[in-house]
Amino acid sequence: MILVKAPLRVSLFGGGTDVPDHFLTHGGTTLSFTIATSVYASLIKTPQPHIKMSYSTTETVENVTLLKHDIARCVLKDYGVYRNLEVASFADIPTVGTGLGASSAFAVALVLGMNYMYERNIDPSRTSPLRLASHAGYIERYDVGSPIGFQDHIAAAYGGVVYANYGCGNSGTTVETTPVSPSVSKHMILVKVPNRTTSANEILSQAADPSLLCRLRDHAIVGRVLLEQERYEEIGQLLHTAWGIKQRTRGGISTITINAMYEKARYLGAIGGKLLGAGGGGYLLLCVPGEETVRRIKNHFPETLDVVPTNKGAEVVYAD
Fold first, then answer.
1. Given strand 188-193, what is the order of strands in its sheet?
2. Is the CB of residue 102 less than 8 Å from the CB of residue 91?
3. How many CB atoms lie within 10 A of CB 19?
């Protein structure tokens, strides 16, 4: 049995510029950090001539091509594993539609588990975080067909504060990581908003204005310095500005209810924030002056999640 975990992430700035359709022409930059809330994948070889996949439901099929779980089906096919394997997916919190990068974290965890189970003698450089993220991201974007970028896979693979540049033309992706300061726990909180009525893929399938995305890319460059220097007042103000721009990039990103919750949080003392993920639902990230505002927000909103950072990326935590 192999058990792998990969962290969820909080995306701060630059989302949308990590999509090839944009960065191959205009370049892209993202800034995010990982939290101590994880997605897990367990893998067990079995003599039974089937593939069994357990998640919110359980599938048992005679051939992997019949599997309905898109990511698991495509990852297993990529490794040429069509039967004799049982896989399970679980997480520390419910992850559907959270905007915390859960599907990409699972893809990274499963690819790492498959690497460990089937290719343990390969060149170690092929299992570097960037290669791991690129492999998982390619499968989810091109084999599964999700119109997503690569920042979530990179964050899950590396861990910590992740600053990624996506090059124009033939320039490659570069990634720099630094430890997350524990102080973010005092200055950031997540507030759950109602579930999506529009899917993330529907939102992401819309064309976005490149000039707006370039402004979000520039925010990531500035935000990196602010985060390193723990200038949370300015981070909150920049998040507020970026959130206004993000809502103009595509339709369906926010709703009347989400906007009302955001304004209420600002009234309670939040400096600024944004809706994580593609939009339409999930978690609002709020940047606040300190712990007193965190307490006020927790007292007002029924469902919140503490931001507890981690510097660990995807890892094999058990191998029998």
1. 272-275, 282-287, 188-193, 304-306
2. yes
3. 20
C-beta of residue 175 within 8 angstroms of C-beta of residue 162: yes
* Residue whose token pair is 């300015």: 234
Residue-level pLDDT, tens digit, the chain, 320 residues: 999 999 999 999 999 999 999 999 999 999 999 999 999 999 999 999 999 999 999 999 999 999 999 999 999 999 999 999 999 999 999 988 899 999 999 999 999 999 999 876 555 555 799 999 999 999 999 999 999 999 999 999 999 999 999 987 667 899 999 999 999 999 999 999 998 767 778 888 888 899 999 999 999 999 999 999 999 999 999 999 999 999 999 888 999 999 999 999 999 999 999 999 988 899 999 999 999 999 999 999 999 999 999 999 999 999 98
Verdict on whether the full-model pTM lies above 0.85: yes
Quote the distance between the C-alpha of residue 290 and its chain's center.
25
Q: Are the C-beta atoms of residues 276 and 253 closer than 8 Å to each other?
A: no
Kindly give, in sequence order, each residue whose CB lies less than 8 Å from that of residue 200, ignoring residues fewer than 6 positions away: 97, 148, 277, 278, 279, 280
